[in-house]
Structures are given as C-alpha cells and as structure tokens.
Design brief:
The protein is of the alpha+beta class. It contains 16 helices and nine strands. Strands 1, 2, 3, 4, 5, 6 and 7 form a seven-stranded antiparallel sheet that branches. The C terminus is likely disordered. One fe (ii) ion binds next to loops.
Length: 416
C-alpha cells in the first residue's frame, strides 16, 4: 500500500484523495466517517495518532481519535466517548489553526519557538506517558470557506517505524483532502440533524423520547454490536459496515410514536388494556415509515422499529406481520429467538437499559448493580443471552456513553 513518501506528484495525490472521498460517500454515520478519515490520512502520512475536532459555535469539540500506541486494530475505541471542548483562539495549536484557517506543521512539540502565540498542551503526555513529537494540523473548511473543524495528526513515522517529521507533501495532500472530507462531514451532520428533527416530532408525543436518550441508545447499540461481532469472529469490514448503520437506525427505534395520540402517551394514570394495545402499534407505524426501503439504512431502521419490543422467549410484541396496512394491523405467530433480527435484539436491551438507568418523573434511576442483576435474570427470557454477554463485557464503555450524552445536553439541542 502506498504512502505519501511514494506518492510524489500532485496527480497521484489527487487520485488518492478522490478514491478516499468515494469511500467516505458510502458511509452514513458521522462517527464512521470520522473513523474512516483518520484511518486513511494516518495510513498515507504514517501518523501514529490523530484527532478530529468539530467546530461548535466558538469552540472546537473533541469528536474522534485514533492512537496506535494505545489501541489494537479492530478493538472497541473507548476514547471517542471522551467529552471536552477547546475555545477557538490562538492559545492552543488546534485553536490557532481554526482561527487562522491555515495548516500548521510542527516537527518537535517540545521545542516550540517561544514567540509563537500557542503552546503545546502536555496534559495528555503527562497523564499517559505518550511522547508527542511531530504534529500536523489542518483546518476542515466548508464549501463556503468556513472552518467546520480541525484534523490533527501526531507522530509521523519513517518506513522503519521510527519517529520522523511529516513528509514534504503532507501539506498538499491534507489541504486537498480536508476540503473533500468536509463535504462528507457536513452531509453526516445533516443526516444526524434530520434524524434529531424526526425524534423531536416523536418527543412532542412522548417526553421520554429525547435527543440524549436516542444518542445513548444509538451508542450502546453500536458498541454492543461491535463486541458481539468480535466474539463471533465477524469480518472487520462487515463490522464497520453494520456499526455505521446500527448507530443511526437505533436512534429511530421509537419514531413510530408520532402515530400515537397525546391522550394516550401523556396519560398520567395507568393505561387500560385497549390503550396499551394502541401504544404497541408504534412498532408498526415505525415500520410503515420505512416500508419502501431505498437503502440498507431504511431496511435496518424498519427491522429495529418493528422488532425492538420482541422478546427472546417469544412473549414480546407485535409478532410476525401479516398485513401491516390493515386496520388494525394483522399479526401472526409471536417472534422468538433468532427469528428476531439481531439488530432489534440489541436495541431491545439498549432501550430497556437506558429507561432503567434514567430518571423519570415517577422514579429515580436504578443503581447499576440492580440493573445488571435484572439484565442477567432476563437473559434467555426477555433478552438474547449472547447480546447480554456482549453488553456485560463492555459495561465500562456503556458507562462512558451514558456520561457523554446526559440529559443536560437537551437544552443545547433545542432550537436557539
Ligand atoms: Fe418502543
Ligand atoms: Fe426509547
């Protein structure tokens, strides 16, 4: 595989940029796009680590990270759930690049000219024992020329894997690349925003269905799937593809609630049997929204919408669909076990876990030990035992996701 030391002229660099951009355009989810961007630019520049920050008002929000020294290929990347922002000003390296809109190449982070306005932040190195040397930072600009974020590459290596400055033509490649990458990033942000808008519609009906809730369910589902797939020895390419889709599709699990009336969803008293039968139809209404799938994402969204209240034991709902358009919809035998698509079995656990772990007006959040005990008890009855096993294996990641998307974010997500 080529890297920038071998790709010498502009035409070849452009060809590389185009081929990476084509691959980016196939992806739906923002995290999957950021992951792919870092993978490709690090491959070409032989960088040990890389970080992407996205601009949010006057700040740069830490959005994605890779670090070969600390992470094995294919493993779950916990570090992406770290939550912090850096102000856009000239006092930090990334802030400087976002402010000036110009790339910056540093050969030795510990030997900066003291007259420069920014300083290298040693916190990460001091905490982890990592030794940062070369840093290449490039702005990501939108088609209107606004800075949408910053890509930072750390510690280039030579062919023998020894630390080295970034190759001469990194600047040309990264500048060309950052512009096309911004299109993919903008598209993914737009997709997420459209989804959040659909969720806000559902939220108007059911106040429990909030932006943070669906982000958490999306994150839990993506990582439970990743662990399940690692346990099963699924091909890494297939893992990436499914993980890209499940995070987005899981967010839409309850979007069918738009079809249920306020009178029922907001009723403070216990629902009657007839009313509960109507609530159950949100699974069917969700599936109706994706009835004519035009993409793998639609197909998966439909599987999740209709299947996320099925139970492994066959005692969930709505069961096998005979005619979802008839009134009321006609259902057949209950679905059980592997008849329920894997992605729906995963979201079933992610959604129930999030409901138990969140405060509601009628209850305090349950402590983790109590939830884990219930989940284990329900393994093999409500939940797929293999899904439960994967969930328990990555419980530390689950906790990070929960901390990242707290309900405090809700204010931010409301229109200003
Ligand atoms: Fe639901
Ligand atoms: Fe939900």
């Amino acid at each position: 595989m080529l890297d920038l030391n071998q790709v010498s002229n502009a035409a070849k660099i452009l060809a590389e940029v185009i081929s990476i951009t084509e691959q980016l355009n196939m992806l739906k989810d923002l995290d999957a796009i950021l992951d792919r961007i870092l993978m490709e630019v690090r491959r070409l520049t032989r960088a040990d680590a890389g970080t992407i920050f996205l601009a949010e008002e006057d700040n740069l929000k830490f959005s994605y990270v890779h670090n070969d020294t600390f992470m094995k290929v294919g493993e779950i990347n916990k570090d992406i759930y770290t939550n912090f922002t850096i102000p856009i000003n000239k006092s930090s390296i990334v802030g400087y690049v976002a402010t000036t809109g110009e790339p910056l190449n540093i050969d030795d982070a510990y030997n900066l000219d003291p007259s420069l306005p920014f300083q290298f932040n040693k916190n990460f190195d001091e905490k982890t024992g990592y030794k940062t040397k070369s840093i290449f930072t490039v702005p990501v600009k939108t088609s209107q020329g606004e800075v949408a974020g910053v890509i930072q590459l750390i510690n280039a290596k030579d062919a023998e894997g020894r630390p080295a400055p970034f190759p001469q033509n990194t600047r040309m490649f990264m500048s060309m690349f950052a512009n096309t990458a911004s299109v993919a990033i903008e598209r993914a942000i737009m997709t997420r925003e459209l989804i959040l808008r659909m969720i806000r519609m559902a939220e108007m009906r059911d106040p429990a269905e909030t932006g943070p809730h669906v982000h958490r369910v999306g994150g839990y589902s993506a990582e439970i799937y990743h662990q399940w797939a690692l346990n099963k020895g699924v091909d890494p390419k297939e893992i990436k593809k499914t993980k890209d889709l499940i995070r987005v599709a899981a967010m839409l699990h309850d979007v069918g609630k738009v079809g249920i009336s306020d009178k029922i969803l907001k009723k403070p008293e216990k629902l009657t049997d007839e009313e509960f039968a109507i609530v159950k139809l949100h699974t069917v209404y969700g599936a109706q929204l994706f009835a004519k799938p035009t993409s793998d994402l639609d197909t998966m969204s439909r599987e999740i919408a209709i299947g996320h209240h099925e139970k492994w034991s066959g005692k969930g709902y709505p069961g096998l669909m005979i005619d979802m358009w008839s009134k009321p919809p006609q259902v057949g035998a209950p679905k059980r076990g592997v008849d329920i698509p894997l992605v729906a079995r995963i979201v079933a656990l992610a959604d129930v876990f999030d409901a138990l772990t969140s405060p509601r007006c009628y209850k305090e959040p349950w402590p983790d030990e109590k939830i884990i005990a219930v989940v284990k008890e329900e393994s093999g009855s409500h939940f797929d035992p293999e899904v439960v096993e994967s969930f328990l294996e990555i419980f530390d990641v689950i906790q990070l996701i929960r901390a990242k998307y707290t309900d405090a974010l809700r204010e931010e997500e409301k229109p200003k």
